[in-house]
Amino acid sequence: MSAYYVMGLDIGSATAKAVLLDESGYSLAFAVRPTRGRLVQSAEEVKQEILAHTGVSEEAVKAIITTGYGRDIVQNKTKSLTEITCHARGAYATMPNIRFVIDIGGQDSKAILLEPDGQVGRFEMNDKCAAGTGRFLEVMARTLGIHLDEMGDMAIHSEKYSKISSTCTVFAESEVISLLAQGEEIPAVVSGLCRAIAERVYGLASRVGITPPIMMTGGVAKNKGVVNWLSRILNQEMIIPPEPQIIGALGAGIMGLEMIKKSNEKMNIITQNT
Amino acid sequence: MSQRVPIRATAKMKELMGFYYMMAKSAENDPNQKIAWITSGGPVEILHAAGVIPIYPENVAAMAGTMKISDEICAIAEEQGFSRDLCSYARTDIGSALSGKGPIMGSASPKPDLLVCCNNICGTVTKWYEELQRIFNVPLIFIDAPFQYGIKDRPEAIDYMEAQLRRMMEQVSEVTGKPFDMDKFMETLELSDRAVKLWREIQDLLQHKPAPMNSFDTFIHLAPIVTLRGTQGCIEYYETLKAELLERIEQGIGTLEKEEYRLGWDNLPVWFKIKFLSERFSQHNAALVVSTYTRSFCYQAEDRDISNPLRAMSADYLAGYINHGLDFRERELTEMVRDFSLDGFVMHSNRSCRAYSFGQYELARTLEDKYGVPVLLIEADQNDTRMWSDEQVGNRIDAFMERVASKKQRNIA
Ligand SMILES: Nc1ncnc2c1ncn2[C@@H]1O[C@H](COP(=O)(O)OP(=O)(O)OP(=O)(O)O)[C@@H](O)[C@H]1O
Ligand code: SF4
Ligand SMILES: [Mg+2]
Predict the structure, then answer these.
(1) Is the predicted ipTM greater than 0.90, yes or no?
(2) What would the CATH number be for the domain defined by B208-412?
(3) Which chain B residues have a beta carbon less than 8 Å from that of A71?
(4) What is the pLDDT of residues B99-111, one digit of tens each?
(5) What pTM did the predictor assign?
(6) Which residue, of B39, B183, B274, B368, has the greatest Cβ tally within 10 A?
(7) What HEC string does chain B produce?
């Protein structure tokens, strides 16, 4: 039994994620739920879900670190940190030789350079519009009448890809409709859409300075089509952790654990001195 | 930040600027008092010496920005077909000229008898002032300042500037109908020189820890050096401000409860978000203590010949930050990092101002890789609020400050 637990909560624009760690940093459980605009409620839901699942009581959770777009809305948090810090920390914990993180979420994409010791270096966010993000793919899946989970397999098995010239979500949608009207096959369109995202992110990553090994985090890392195109365009292998979507929450949890350890050390010094 | 001690001189500046605009406004109906519109980097001393009142459309546009009326004025220019890609100062000014709407006592700037355009800040002003000439149908004096690619300014470019300034004296005297008074001009140059030096000294006082004021203050206290350099009032004002800052230093008064981090700022301010930015950085105990923008109004050429004031002036009007290539900019930025003990640099990638924003990514990379200085790029616009989102910029600032803080902690440990 662990003496205490730490929770990382990542309240994103698309999903709420929670990770529970024990005092040794071992991840006991995680939960993911769609946010659907209810930030506070979905945060509470993922939190209760992992507590119920692990049987850990709320009192045993010594720190809750929040991150993501809704990080400051959550009540009863120990501290909030940005996604840049948390994704970097989570990726580094998963694989300490990682130098570069590409996080593509629902609303924005980020490219983060890590110093060899895991500290955050330069970073860039694409946040002016939804193009190049998960939301773009969600809109397109709906337009095409397919499921989000199918997109990846469809894309990687298609030999052809459509050229999607527009990077704007609104214009790309009408472009897709006209491609379909011209008789373009759906898998080729899907592959073209994944490529459009990868191109966008490539621009972002180049500005930071692409430095392998590269890890992809965020929900879009589950889309094999985007992953495949990114590794082709960047000419680099994309390392995908087993649960890419929860890396931010994991990083938040680890930061919480480090905070506790640091303040314990301080306490020890004080008690030794007195 | 409840115990922030306000800067007393601010009231005096408001009075000074208010008086200046009132005087300019009343001169509009006086046929004997000539008014010139001039670009911010223009050789204003010639106008002061000739008794012509200078008006700075850029300053007026910035006022419209802080008063949050620039969007509506820009829209007037856009309706007339001016592209949204055009600098928002130009759109604000042209919209104001076309509609009579503006920030000066609720209306536009007093109409010009003369236009003076110097392209040492950008190429945009060339076309902008041609447009003003079409609107007002008055003479336009154009001073062509060659862009300086190297660190050292070229002597033939200084010759060229000098010839144009001499010609400008004649052109101005044609408008006033009086001969150009050389003695008055020399006096004006001296007053300008003193003001410029004072403005530099004032900014250098921010090297002190804690800084007695911050860049958000210098953005505001910039108005007199832009509009009134070459006048006695300008010098008096900055002497007052300097004395107050020295007093603040003496008493250890800063602008934050705790100044933990010191940052530089590159490019124009985001006029309509001064308060937001200032508060967001304060939340992280970060003070902005130097900016390339406010320092742009105190550049003096390196080897200026003081025995020949006109020659020195010709060199000075080439010497600005924004009239230079990347090697020069790199040197300036790294000197600021050193002299002001900066923990990082914030670069405003300004959609309006290509002349300023070009090369910022390269400079950011250089600062990061060569000098280990963290750089934050913020994409925005000096006057166009449609380019802005509190949420997104705030998020970037938070992430950047987490980075700066952890870097500093690591360096201390
Ligand atoms: N099984 C899946 N297959 C393919 N794509 C998926 C899958 N699950 C999620 N996604 C993609 O992941 C996106 C959501 O990612 P994530 O949960 O990381 O976003 P977020 O953190 O809420 O957003 P942000 O960080 O931008 O605020 C969805 O928009 C979708 O495109
Ligand atoms: S483009 Fe830049 S330098 Fe030129 S007027 Fe606009 S803001 Fe000023
Ligand atoms: Mg996210």
Answers:
(1) no
(2) 3.40.50.11900
(3) none
(4) 999 999 889 999 9
(5) 0.91
(6) B39
(7) CCCCCCCCHHHHHHHHHHHHHHHHHHHCCCCCCCEEEECCCCCCHHHHHCCCEEECHHHHHHHHHHCCCHHHHHHHHHHCCCCCCCCHHHHHHHHHHHHCCCCECCECCCCCCEEEEECCCCCHHHHHHHHHHHHHCCCEEEECCCCECCCCCCHHHHHHHHHHHHHHHHHHHHHHCCCCCHHHHHHHHHHHHHHHHHHHHHHHHHHCCCCCCCHHHHHHHCHHHHHHCCCHHHHHHHHHHHHHHHHHHHCCCCCCCCCCEEEEEECCCCHHHHHHHHHHHHHCCEEEEEEHHHHHHHCCCCCCCCCCHHHHHHHHCCCCHHHECHHHHHHHHHHHHHHCCCCEEEEEEECCCHHHHCCHHHHHHHHHHHHCCCEEEEEECCCCHHHCCHHHHHHHHHHHHHHHHHHHHHHHC
